[in-house]
Amino acid sequence: MVATVDQTADWGVQQIWSWRGYRCHWRVTGPAGAPPLLLLHGFGASSSHWRRTAPRLAERGWRVYSLDLLGFGASEQPARPLSNGLWGYQVCAFLRQVVQQPAVLIGNSLGGLTALTAAVLQPKWVDAVVAAPLPDPALLNPVPRTMSRWKRRWMRRLLRIILRLLPLELLVPLISRTSLLKLGLQGAYFNSVAGDRDLLKLIARPAQRPTAARALRGMCFGMALRAQASTAPALLVALQRPLLLIWGREDRFVPLSIGESIHHQHPHIDLVALESCGHCPHDEVPKRFIDVLLPWLDRNLGDIRPAGDNQRR
Question: Rounded to whole angstroms, how far apart are CA atoms 96 and 75?
């Protein structure tokens, strides 16, 4: 039985790390010297979103890190293309420079795709990957392996024009300050989020920064023009580490059928569906999320399990 632990959005000891000249926010909790986990947030979220999971994992004896990906949370929001390829390199550098040892990567949504990317880029720094869930439009519409230079050039020009015409500097602050944000968040959850003020704040705060719109524009550009090797289908083929998919059965954003398709194509990848749960299982049903996660880690990485973890269950 896990004792009651602090579950606020301000969990952990928070710090700033510099990567390629950018300020990156991260936090940590749990006993020093314990096996490390690195938690990666989804689109529009931040390390704060692990408020209900990180303290529980620390209580079980893990050293729990979480990183705000470039463009999100309290990390810098630069005017440059952003994609899971770049975030994957950010995660790998964080493991080398801050964690300083291989870790289990656990990601929600976009964080799951980033965790998968990092595991393929530098597998020696990753013990295992958990994606809850794993989103990528390429899982439905594969990106061509090759594209002519002129076609790619025109795509870049057209995308730049479209993104410049979109009034994101008006739309992003507007959404973050109106009921539209609550409507969008409710779409990610099976249960009502109407009374969850912490959730609304942790999502709204980064979107209200003056640099948020340019970061969103950079992400749209970067993700749309990724190389085929950076898409989930190619990464899944190249992956050399154990992978667990955790899916909310009522996920409206990324349907469970996508996870089932991945499992069908790659039977060695484990898939667990959680009932009465939407797109954010780590936050909506944290106890059930951990009850799936830790036994899976025991089976795949039993030699690095924290001492006494079984007794805490």
Answer: 19
What are the φ and ψ backbone dihedral angles of 217, each rounded to 5 degrees? Answer: -60, -40
Q: Which amino acid is at 62?
A: W
Cα gap 53→64, rounded to integer Å: 10
What's the mean pLDDT in 54-68?
A: 97
In our burial notation (b when 16+ CB lie closer than 10 A, e otherwise), range 302-312 reads eebbbeebeee
Enumerate the domain spans of the chain: 13-312
Backbone conformation region of residue 244, classed left if phi is above 0, alpha if psi is from -120 to 50, else beta: beta
Residue 207: how many CB atoms within 10 A of its CB? 19
Which pLDDT score, from 0 to 100, does residue 95 have? Answer: 98
With 0-12 CB in 10 A as exposed, 13-18 as middle and 19+ as buried, what is 229?
A: middle
| pLDDT for residue 147 is more than 70 | no
Range 106-128 average pLDDT: 98
- Across the chain, mean pLDDT equals 91
Q: State in words which class domain 13-312 has.
A: alpha beta
The predicted structure's pLDDT at residue 3: 40
